[in-house]
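Thread amino acids onto this structure.
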């Protein structure tokens, strides 16, 4: 069953955040388990972002989170946020195309 994680955060360092994301993508090539990712910026609050990350399952998401590269980059990302990111973990119960 598909698993989706929403990551909500605020930052004034969008360029640095995107650079870290690209670094993580290079470092985890062939190891990461995410299926797809969407990066959204709030139209009414330019420092508010939501990332939507899809995984094949909860177990695969947890395996991805445990990668040393994920741990290292996530600490750097937290340092660029104005407050602690909020994570919402969702089991997809229905999907309509």
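Threaded sequence (97 positions):
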């Amino acid at each position: 069953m598909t698993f989706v994680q929403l990551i909500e955060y605020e930052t004034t360092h969008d360029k640095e955040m995107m650079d870290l994301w690209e670094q993580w993508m290079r470092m985890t090539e062939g190891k990461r388990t995410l299926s797809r990712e969407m990066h959204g910026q709030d139209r009414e609050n330019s420092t508010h972002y939501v990332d939507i990350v899809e995984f094949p399952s909860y177990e695969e998401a947890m395996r991805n989170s445990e990668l040393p590269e994920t741990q290292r980059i996530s600490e750097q990302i937290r340092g660029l946020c104005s407050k602690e990111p909020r994570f919402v973990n969702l089991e997809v119960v229905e999907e309509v195309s």
